[in-house]
Amino acid sequence: MGKAVTMSDIAKKLNVSTVTVSKALADKEGVSDEIRAKIKQVANEMGYRYNVAAKSLRGGLTYNVGIIIPERFIEVGMSFYWQLYKKVADELKEQNYYAVFEILKFSDEENAVVPKMIYDNKVDGIIVIGQVVMEYFETIKSVPVPVVFMDFYEKDNTQDFVITDNFHSMYMLTSHLIEMGHRDIGFVGNFKSTSSIQDRYLGYMKALIENDIDLNRCSQWYINDRDKEGVYKDFELTETLPTAFVCNCDNVAYDLMNKLQERGYRVPEDISVVGFDNYKLSSKNGVALTTAEVDMNTMAQTAVDILMKKINKDEVKKGIRQISCKIILNNSVKKLHS
Amino acid sequence: MGKAVTMSDIAKKLNVSTVTVSKALADKEGVSDEIRAKIKQVANEMGYRYNVAAKSLRGGLTYNVGIIIPERFIEVGMSFYWQLYKKVADELKEQNYYAVFEILKFSDEENAVVPKMIYDNKVDGIIVIGQVVMEYFETIKSVPVPVVFMDFYEKDNTQDFVITDNFHSMYMLTSHLIEMGHRDIGFVGNFKSTSSIQDRYLGYMKALIENDIDLNRCSQWYINDRDKEGVYKDFELTETLPTAFVCNCDNVAYDLMNKLQERGYRVPEDISVVGFDNYKLSSKNGVALTTAEVDMNTMAQTAVDILMKKINKDEVKKGIRQISCKIILNNSVKKLHS
DNA sequence: CTGAAAGCGCTTACAG
DNA sequence: CTGAAAGCGCTTACAG
């Protein structure tokens, strides 16, 4: 390791000032092309590495963004938010920023504990991925750095949220089922757990209503798949079965298909199934799910973009950004001949 | 946001020097209990937040550790390394360190591109999770900060590796199968892909040899499940089937069980299956896998511990640390009556 | 184009 | 116990 090379070392070697070195390396004007080239070359030869801490101290920016994900969303087998996290980290890198990661523990969320990285002045801003409980939301939105929330929202238009357009996408998906001749359509998901699932449920209802399908009738095929906190639980099939199920996510759709198959039903021959997310590529037993593809790239880009603007104190319009999905048609839906 | 509160602000308010404030807040000696209490109280009231950048600049430490994971190990559905990453991040937090995350892109790995965080002086050390190609390994081991490698190793005892004791654990698992009366035992996994899988394969072979089971005979039930880079591929069952399969990981064990069930075989009644990892809690159709539980907590703790010592220039014995597994006996293995 | 000076916020010797 | 001084490595005005 040894002593780190500084700008001053380069300056001495070339008999120029550190100011000139600084300008040259930062590609700022005020240095002749000749000297600039020379400086860059020598910096390279000497193995110079920029000292962010110094820049940080001077400029007041850490060039870090904190990513906070509630623990319960990254349990074993739940890799959706990991993928989203990865996209966000990539996007930050594009902006010459780094992702500093913190898992939000159950207890810290309940007790509304402010992330340590805030106290430690470690980050210029924060991105919270996944719905947090109300008290935590209230706490986090008043930390002294900008915050962007991803994949959920609250009734609070003073904050920035980047979400999937759950409502319209699920409306589209359900409408597709109806176009394929289905009218007995169940729903799998706890609409009391997160805003995303709730909106998907409402999109599903919108399609039913629009097509004069009796909501009460369909409610007999409603299956609850998780508790209020969003933690999966094992579920039972309904007593009678519809011709199609709308699932709040692909994970649960695969579970449902397994359960149906165990009971001897075939998908889609006997029962059609649609999911939501499309982040898993695999298909089960040759059945590929018709689903809505969440546009993680655009979500990540948008969230980072908003945060950067807030950090740089640029004007940003506050509120909810809805990123629309792409509907993916596969062979988990059968056309009914009526 | 406004202007940040500094130690000097606190000092002025209390008519003491910044030196005294610094000592008081850092719990260093040389301040009377009375003044120390007063300072802490005022710091709190004024909303003082420590400026790490300043400390960093002075002390030369960033209090960040970079976590690097090759892209191919965090594809959709592969959450093992995410879990490990989470444990490592938690462990770092214990040490008042932060995890700075960087995905290693395919191309950067091939071209042995040094992580940006190194050039940017962002981290005091690095933990690489998952096996990287040889050229990348050679590059990364000579970066100017300490490095610890997790979950793989190379023939290089100048470096620090923290791995699972794959060899002995798989030897134990396979021995268990043999004790249960199995002698026709297949293996699923590409032993040419990673050091982990290779060692598991050799542990399996050790158990066979020790029990005078013909290796050649068993090789007819060898199934390749992934390419050399470790990326999963769809696999076919062997023509004939053994009474038991040893799988290189739980993921693949579940896949195998699915394939067996599709072909009408029951687990464990017709064919026994053992896996490796035990990080997935779910069981398929009531069959819970007999497997070896990787001790992620100890691995994370050990890796962070070694890295901290290296960062603080403490003496550390270099080489491979093997963390042993716990064998988990479940109902995916049937006792044969011979 | 070039550079001397000041300062970002903290901590480490050192002196009283 | 208490504090004045120096310095970590950089950048931003400002002057030449």
List the helices and strands and how they pair.
Two copies of one chain form a homodimer.
Chain A: H1 7-14, H2 18-25, H3 33-46, H4 52-59, E1 64-70, H5 80-94, E2 98-104, H6 106-110, H7 116-119, E3 125-129, H8 134-140, E4 147-150, E5 160-164, H9 166-179, E6 185-188, H10 195-210, H11 215-218, E7 222-223, E8 244-247, H12 250-262, E9 272-274, E10 291-293, H13 296-311, E11 319-323, E12 326-328
Parallel strand pairs in A: 1-2, 1-3, 3-4, 4-5, 5-11, 6-7, 6-8, 8-9
Antiparallel strand pairs in A: 10-12
Helix pairs in contact in A: 1-2, 1-3, 2-3, 5-13, 9-10
The structure holds a DNA duplex (16 and 16 nucleotides).
| Cα-atom radius of gyration of chain A | 26 Å
Mean pLDDT of chain A: 90
First and last CA, distance of chain A: 76 Å
CATH superfamily of the largest domain in chain A: Response regulator
* Residue fraction in strands of chain A: 15-25%
Overall SS class of chain A: alpha/beta
Query: What is the oligomeric state here?
Result: homodimer
- One letter per element, helices H and strands E, the order of chain A comes to HHHHEHEHHEHEEHEHHEEHEEHEE
CATH topology of the largest domain in chain A: Rossmann fold
| Strand line-up in the sheet with most strands of chain A | 2-1-3-4-5-11
Any idea of the CATH class of the largest domain in chain A? Alpha Beta
Please describe the biggest sheet of chain A, giving its number of strands, its sense, and whether it closes into a barrel: 6 strands, parallel
Tally of helical segments of chain A: 13
Helix content of chain A: 25-40%
